[in-house]
Every structure is written in structure tokens, then in C-alpha cells.
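Researcher: Please predict.
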Amino acid sequence: MFEKQIRIPSAEEIIEKQPLPKSLVKIKHERDELCKDVIAGRSQKLLVVVGPCSAHESAPVLEYVRRLGKLNEQVKDKLVLVPRIYTNKPRTKGVGYKGMFSQPDPENKEDILKGIQTIRALHIAAIEQSGLSAADEMLYPENFDYVQDVLTYVAVGARSSENQLHRLVSSGIDVPVGVKNSTGGSIPVLLNSIFASQSPQVFKYNEYQVSTNGNEYAHAVLRGRVDHHGNDIPNYHYETVMEIFEGYSKMSELKNLAVVIDANHSNSGKRFYQQIRIVEEVLQNRLYDKDFKRAVKGFMIESFLEEGCQQHDVVFGKSITDPCLGWADTERLILDIAEKA
């Protein structure tokens, strides 16, 4: 049975009380267009979605984003940096810390209303303090409306990419949506998810029947796969990227060929330092083959102020979920990507 605990106001009510300031709307729109231009191939820049595995506390996330904003000034001619501010955390077994949206204080119980208010404040402050609008994961489609006006990039995770509602909602989003391959790694399934996201749809969303025009900026994210024995199998290599390239060629309805390489998760086996090697290999393959270069439009990288992870929030700027690169290595890696882009 369901026990009703507290009424959560609608997204319209929340946004009215916590609007994105008009001074930041223009910045956010400009950032959206930069990101779209990369995915569509109108820009030769590379997209880099980078930041902590999960945003568990506002202060270190804002410190990280401020640093990223300064670094952006050095690389903006070659890269589009999008801070990863993920406020919903998927759990393999369905229990545990589920992200700032549900638990604004990871050491206390769920408080979803406070969580919504906290993440809106965080996303708005991030734009204000760094000039960079962020990426977040659409773990729960019904929650997307609470942040739809502050995000420049939306991710659909491996456990969600085969879900029909995620695909339908993605078709109505106005910014690029990165659809990850499912944990099983099927490329045909991934291409079907992108096709559904790019297609016009009619469906029930929250309290309404809605229609969408399709999102031509929906694209592939390769994050590795898991085999039947639970082993991580990477899929950032040349062969998988070219399989997607060929799939786009065969499915002529698909628009805007784009692959983003997630350097962590099953590609690295969550060995966070391997992200550097993985990015370097992909950059070399971009030099080797013009079709590979045309397909690969960027990277996802998990990093924070301090490397590794911790079980409880003791060290400022250290992940409490998956381990991340530290800032010094992140800065060097981003500068290297810009040099080789």
C-alpha cells in the first residue's frame, strides 16, 4: 500500500517561486545552442560533460563548477564544457542514497520537497557563479519538469534507456539528450531508443495527454556493458563506434550522428584513473579515421575536487558514491583534450 506523506507542489508552482533569473536565461540559451551545434556537427568543438558521480552537497559542487568556469575560458575555442550536476542516483539494488533530489542531506531521511528546492538553488547558483549550465540525469521522467528550464544536457541512464516513458519524454526535451547503451550493450536496442527519442510522440505525461515534435539532438552514449557473469566489458573501442556509424547509415531516419564516450562505469570498470587512458585512446582513434572522428562528439568524465570516494561526507569535495578523478588530473586531462580536439 501507499502512505501519502506530503503533497509535492507541481513544477509550475515550484518554478514560479524559484525562477531562473532573467539575467541567466540568455546565458543558458547560448549554452544550449553551443551544445546542439556540437551534436549536429555544425561545430567542430568537442563536448565534455564532467563532474562528480553525484552532487551530494552544494558547497563543494559550486567550488568545482567555479573552477570549471575558469578553465572554460582557456578551452572554449575547442571544447564545450558542461558540468555534471547529477541530483538523482540510480541504485543497482534499489536501496541506499538516491541523490539530492530525494535526500538533500545524505545522512538524513528523504525530504523530496526540500530536495527539489535545493537542487534548483544549486543549478541556478552554478550558472550564476560559473557561466556554465549543467547536465543532470533523467532518472525519473515525472521529475524532469522541476529542472527542465535550467539544464543544457540530459542523460538517460543504462537502466532507463529501454524504458518507454524515458524515450517518449526525451522526444519532447528541447536540449541534447544522451541515451546510454543498456547494461547488456546491444547497439540495435540503443539505436531504437534514439529513433524513438527523435520521433514525434503522443502520450500521457503527468496530468495531460501531450504531443512532442521529437528531439533531433538525442544521441548515443557508450558506457560499456556487463556480461552474463557480471563482468564489465568496455565498448569505447573503434569497432563499437563504427557499428553505430553503420547503424546510422542503415537507419536513414536518424538525424545528427553523434557518440559520446562515457570514460567511467563499465568502460573503466569504475577504476577512475583509467578514464585518462580511455580518453587518450579515443582521441588517437579520432586522428586515425575521419568517420570515427565524425561520429565521436565528446566525453563524459567523473571527477571531483578530491580523487576517489568515501562512505560518508567527511572530506570536502570527495564523492560519496562512485570514485572520481581529482581536480588536478581533471584539469590536465581537459587541457589535453582541447589540445588534441
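Model: The chain has one domain: 27-340.
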